[in-house]
Amino acid sequence: MVCENPSKENLKTPGSLGFFCCARPNVSFRSNLSYLLPGKCTHRMIVVMDQNVADELIDNVTKRVQELGLKAHVIRGTERTVIAAVGDERMVKVESFESFPGVAEVMPILAPYKMASRELKPESTQVKVGPFRAGAGVIGVIGGPCSVESEEQIVQSAKAVKAAGGTALRGGAFKPRTSPYSFQGMKEEGLKLLALARQETGLAVVTEVMSTEDVPLVAKYADVLQIGARNMQNYRLLEAVGRSGRAVLLKRGPSASIEEWLLAAEYILNEGNPDVMLCERGIRTFETHTRFTLPLATVPYLHRKTHLPVIVDPSHGTGHSYLVADMAAASVAAGADGLIVEMHPNPEKAMSDGYQSLDFKQFQEMMNRCNVIAKALGKTFG
Amino acid sequence: MVCENPSKENLKTPGSLGFFCCARPNVSFRSNLSYLLPGKCTHRMIVVMDQNVADELIDNVTKRVQELGLKAHVIRGTERTVIAAVGDERMVKVESFESFPGVAEVMPILAPYKMASRELKPESTQVKVGPFRAGAGVIGVIGGPCSVESEEQIVQSAKAVKAAGGTALRGGAFKPRTSPYSFQGMKEEGLKLLALARQETGLAVVTEVMSTEDVPLVAKYADVLQIGARNMQNYRLLEAVGRSGRAVLLKRGPSASIEEWLLAAEYILNEGNPDVMLCERGIRTFETHTRFTLPLATVPYLHRKTHLPVIVDPSHGTGHSYLVADMAAASVAAGADGLIVEMHPNPEKAMSDGYQSLDFKQFQEMMNRCNVIAKALGKTFG
Amino acid sequence: MVCENPSKENLKTPGSLGFFCCARPNVSFRSNLSYLLPGKCTHRMIVVMDQNVADELIDNVTKRVQELGLKAHVIRGTERTVIAAVGDERMVKVESFESFPGVAEVMPILAPYKMASRELKPESTQVKVGPFRAGAGVIGVIGGPCSVESEEQIVQSAKAVKAAGGTALRGGAFKPRTSPYSFQGMKEEGLKLLALARQETGLAVVTEVMSTEDVPLVAKYADVLQIGARNMQNYRLLEAVGRSGRAVLLKRGPSASIEEWLLAAEYILNEGNPDVMLCERGIRTFETHTRFTLPLATVPYLHRKTHLPVIVDPSHGTGHSYLVADMAAASVAAGADGLIVEMHPNPEKAMSDGYQSLDFKQFQEMMNRCNVIAKALGKTFG
Amino acid sequence: MVCENPSKENLKTPGSLGFFCCARPNVSFRSNLSYLLPGKCTHRMIVVMDQNVADELIDNVTKRVQELGLKAHVIRGTERTVIAAVGDERMVKVESFESFPGVAEVMPILAPYKMASRELKPESTQVKVGPFRAGAGVIGVIGGPCSVESEEQIVQSAKAVKAAGGTALRGGAFKPRTSPYSFQGMKEEGLKLLALARQETGLAVVTEVMSTEDVPLVAKYADVLQIGARNMQNYRLLEAVGRSGRAVLLKRGPSASIEEWLLAAEYILNEGNPDVMLCERGIRTFETHTRFTLPLATVPYLHRKTHLPVIVDPSHGTGHSYLVADMAAASVAAGADGLIVEMHPNPEKAMSDGYQSLDFKQFQEMMNRCNVIAKALGKTFG
After folding, report:
1. I need a surface site. Which of B236, B252, C209, D178 has the fewest CB within 10 A?
2. In 10 A of CB D8, how many CB atoms?
3. Between the CA of residue A169 and those of A157, A165, A227, C25, C210, what are the distances in Å?
4. From the candidates D17, D48, D109, which should be mutated to test the interface with B, based on the most B CB atoms within 10 A?
5. How far is CA C222 from CA C118, C129, C170, C231, C264, in A?
6. In terms of DSSP H, where are the helices of B178-283?
7. Does C17 lie at the interface with A, CB-CB under 8 angstroms?
8. Which CATH class name applies to C8-108?
9. How far apart are CA B203 and CA D226, in angstroms?
10. Other C-beta atoms within 10 Å of A1: how many?
């Protein structure tokens, strides 16, 4: 039973190794095993039977495995029997074995992402946009205010970022608001101010895009399109930025597993866009003394699993300006390929997120500290 | 300093008590206190000063509070001083007190949602769509498959839902897929099949809408628009369904706090749409034996905080068909105003989520059990 | 290589199927798979190799599996090879395959608890202590104050519990305190008051024991020894109550997985004490509107995995008196075998946890509601 | 109403500022606000009333506040009234205001720990034991195997730790086991081997103590007593190590808040033992790719709140040897005062936790990297 929903990638390049087809990356996948549970496509899995089940039930599962074009290996233990289903190159749709009588558990074997995986591409990817570089031993630093507020504010910020050694400017032109008036008024004007700041400093511009309709406009002005944490699984938006011709900074959702995140990256890569950066910005846990919990082990873990650069956001990841520099330094020491940090000419007067923004002096001090560590580790800033 | 971004609601009804203005409901707000931290609008807050601060620092804060049009009440303790800032009817924009010298902590007082709150509207809201009713003592049951697959599948399902006492049919016409082909092919056809099933059974139709562009099309066929967990904070989509003229089922995001969820509902209500139902479908925790953790205390807690009906989804909330009926019964006992449950003519063959779907017989048994409990508690099904 | 640390159980009953030996149940085991990771004992596992590994690495693993007395089944796929290691009756110590070159992942197959599992004992266990019964269709209700405060308070409470249909009295005689004075003064006196209340009402007495030294004293007065959430993995204490001759109420730790909890129960069962009740009292999650998150799907899930009765504590599980009755009703509907509920003659004056205690009238109303549901479901109170 | 359970500290030093008395540090305290909810002792709090409550209800609360010896400041807003209760030096027991009619919320103001707080003691504490120093700019490194297995294993390990620049040796002599035989056999012998290794290398010895009875024995051989994560709230054990005359390494419980952890430290300090080190070893979250989630923002956050040294355990915090060195480096960059790292002559053959242990070469490389970073930051190893 060949999969009736082959991925676009596979249609384009027959014979490719793309092994997930209708596997729906889903907010509701729980563990790193469950993503390929019945109903999803995979190539191989382990079906663990209940204790002492009748041979007939084992045969049922075996038969179904074979119907699906997989080979079934039956392993009879002293108490339990296990059936390993191993596939070949063809795409298959695997139905629910969990609801088969006698089945105790189903475990898939392979990871569901491919283009993002280091198995496919062992060498590290470096994303380059203007003076900004991240990955493969180079650390790119993105600084700037939460929101674009005025020409003076954004140009001053850009100059301060550059002076401190950063190579990209962040700033929100599209921000979610209660009122449609504020929203309508800010968007293109904010983008133009970002472009102006780029003109004055040469920095690359990073800004968030929140909906499919806005992609062309934002792509006209920005160098890197940021996908916010809330949109990590907005598949249409992922596809749209995948076709935008711009590099993408993909923030992790606050309750996303690593697999869900890499699958979101896969959506972008699948559209032919290789310039994807992953941005760890903290997860939601029981902790309340920080806005989110920033799990830096993500950095070396991702470096084993994927070739994509890993950026850390210590501003959202902690929510307090007094923790930002320490966590920026820790990120560099953990091997991060970049940082994205909120700063503002006057954090007390910032229109949003002022309490987690650094002022220019604090930003410079943070950069000094990160530089010392990077140099000690034989890395450079780009 | 009057807020420059008054909410649409306030513009429409001058003199109203609407107390959040540019308060940006945000995935990154952490605790139920932090949503009104500096940079957000609120009407009153408690500023706790550091120990033994100089009077000058206290005066700074007091002055700023007064500049913002709030009254400052200074409470001097033996070790610490606390400043209570209490507002009047005017909308104000409160800037970051946390970064003021000498400030230890800032705590807001009021909840940031208003139209959803029971304080504003003490009587419970009942949502009525065709035969379906939920709220104010009536329990509405929505059943059906995860995805619309065929006429036979959806019509059979609708008949089984009706036979068991349900009044609405669920079924996904828009499902996120890797391939654009499968997606393009399914959408309107699936909606037509849902409409056909409604014609044959009279059930109300509930289906998910995933993007702003699709709202008119989905609203043409469906009676209730479902906002999925991944889109709970997609504000444009919330606004669009708020203007759609259809009732809305708003699923909780897997890491959303109650406040974030009610603020998302506020977006819809704010567009003039009163027919909003909240759907608890489980949160992401460290537990791995269920797909999500289903926190039923949400039901009575929400009943205190809001007048909106609360629906429970025991299918996604557990991820295992064998747990669904028990949790459906528990939901009714906890006071739920409705249930949304996945069922399928043949769960083993389901194209998605088969392992958490009930078959028709199991669905009937679940309904029997819920009926007995509802009757014992003096409630009816609608 | 035979395990050098056979479990006591296995020593007592040679030839038994006891399959965990030196498996150290550990707070730090993460997922329901990781408990049997390298270094722990198990009888069977799946070793997934890296892609395209050399045959030599596969042979290394196979050889090691055989050295350990297990049979190795090698399954060669098109991309990966999987080695299933299946054991026989002998106890073996399995060393770390994860650190073997070429190994991608190791997955164990069987659950590590045995005496608690329903596989071993399919029929449900009913714990009976005086008038109190829990399990196998009978619901036992334990009510009473957080702390024993006075004769009047505890005897009045006991009478109110009995009048409402409860069969056991709870009350803390050993409470953790900063000061050793309060602690020393309360303990035996509190136990005597509990015994007095039992004498006057016939109720069974449930009280917490906090350290090994206190077990004989508490066992002298109490009918059921409660192990608090903080002590769920205090192995010496578990062994001591296992030898105490008293029934045990084992609370779940706020971050304990189901497996860790059942392994803790196994410690008690392993000492020859069959009267163990599991008590779900909520887990720690990102939610802040309740003290803990009460995951009721635990109840039907545990009923599939274990024969032991499952009690729910809606008082600690929510932390607010106004949520207790709803969650008690939901627990009964979910199939709970019992409830443990805090109540107090005057919650406002309670010395501890007053904000989550019911008064006598509220307790009676909760019982009325639970009774109606239990009757509707064909269950009785015991 | 003076508190009837004054803390020992207060009894000893009348007139002291010790402001928690019967405040029971409790696993079940949820947020950083809830620890001082009704039923606990505190000196000041904010009581938020419901909207538009009758003056009588406000008077009730005010009266009760005054009865408790606190001053009540009533702040009347346009919609709500807030009552600030501010105390003086006397210890008071505060009862449940949350269950008072008309009360919407209760918020405490001060942190409940005192001796651990930096407010009390602004300068950083340095713990010194033999050659080992941690705190105040000096980083102490503790290395060694999970369990003491043999003289050769522990002496070799100690030499490798010393050669790499570590100053303390870790090794478990008391490990939780299923079988009492293995346990009985290992304990004192293991301690003697640790002492022997100290004799040969001069390193300080760090080892876990699991129960009150074992404290004298362990204290006889060890220099630093480790309290494991499972015992973080075992108050008797905390008191016992507080009186042991040995420095203490207090691990964070996997679901403990910072406040609960500092309160646990307070127990030890309260016995007159100033040599307490806090050890972050990861919290339990929804993440499954690491054993725990290691939240390094804990380090700078604790440095603001407490003067005690903060040690990080990257071995348990990640659960994978390949993540340890990166997280050790990140910890040093984040400002950690020390590291505790598992290493073993032959991790593949380790009796426990081999998959997270480094071998000697990896340990040396980790130290080299940490040294470079420490030097760059102007810190030294001790």
Report:
1. B236
2. 16
3. 8, 11, 16, 50, 57
4. D109
5. 28, 10, 10, 18, 21
6. 180-201, 215-221, 235-242, 258-270
7. yes
8. alpha beta
9. 64
10. 12
Domains of chain D: which residue ranges?
8-108, 127-381
Residues in chain A, total: 382
The H or E element containing residue A129 is strand A127-129
CATH topology match: C8-108 vs C127-381: no
Pick the CATH number of C127-381 from 3.40.640.10, 3.30.43.10, 1.20.1600.10, 3.20.20.70: 3.20.20.70
Taking CA atoms, C333 is separated from B327, B335, C304, C337, in Å, by: 8, 12, 16, 10
Strand partners, C133: C128
Half-sphere exposure of residue D364: CA atoms within 13 angstroms, side-chain side: 11
| Min distance D166 CA to chain C CA atoms (Å) | 25
Do C321 and D99 lie within an 8 Å CB cutoff?
A: yes
Helix (H) or strand (E) holding A275: none
DSSP calls for A197-235: HHHHH--EEEEE--SGGGHHHHHHH-SEEEEPGGGTT-H
Nearest neighbour of A377 by CB, restricted to D294, D335, D372: D372
Chains in touch with C (3+ beta-carbon pairs under 8 Å) read: A, B, D
- Given its phi and psi angles, is residue A202 left (phi above 0), alpha (psi -120 to 50 degrees) or beta? left
| Chain B residues 185-204 with a CB less than 8 Å from chain A | none
Which residues, other chains included, contact B368 with Cβ-Cβ below 8 Å and sequence gap of 6+? none
Rounded Cα distance between D35 and D25, Å, is 7
CA distance to partner chain C, nearest, from residue A274 (Å):
23
Q: Determine contact: C255 vs chain D, CB below 8 A.
A: yes
* Tokens linked to C145: 């104050």
* Sequence-separated (6 or more) residues with CB below 8 Å from residue B217: B187, B188, B191
Q: Is B14 exposed, middle or buried (0-12, 13-18, 19+ CB in 10 A)?
A: exposed
CA dist., res. A30 & res. D286, Å (int)? 9
DSSP state of D68: T
8 Å CB contact of A75 and C73: yes
Inspect the interface and report whether the beta carbons of C288 and B255 lie closer than 8 Å. no
Residues of chain D contacting C253 with CB distance shorter than 8 Å: 255
Q: Do B96 and A354 touch (CB under 8 A)?
A: yes
pLDDT in tens, chain A (382 residues): 222 333 333 222 222 222 222 222 222 222 232 222 233 334 456 777 877 788 888 888 888 888 777 777 777 766 677 787 765 433 444 445 666 777 776 765 555 677 888 877 889 999 999 999 999 999 999 999 999 999 999 999 999 999 999 999 999 998 754 333 234 436 899 999 999 999 999 999 999 998 888 999 999 999 999 999 988 988 889 999 999 999 999 999 999 999 889 989 988 998 899 999 999 999 999 998 999 999 999 999 999 999 999 999 999 999 999 999 999 999 999 999 999 999 999 887 766 666 789 999 999 999 999 999 999 999 999 8
Query: Does B230 touch chain A if contact means CB atoms closer than 8 Å?
Result: yes
**Angle separating helix axes D321-334 and D360-376, nearest 10 degrees:** 20
For residue D46, list chain B residues with Cβ-Cβ distance below 8 A: 46, 82, 107
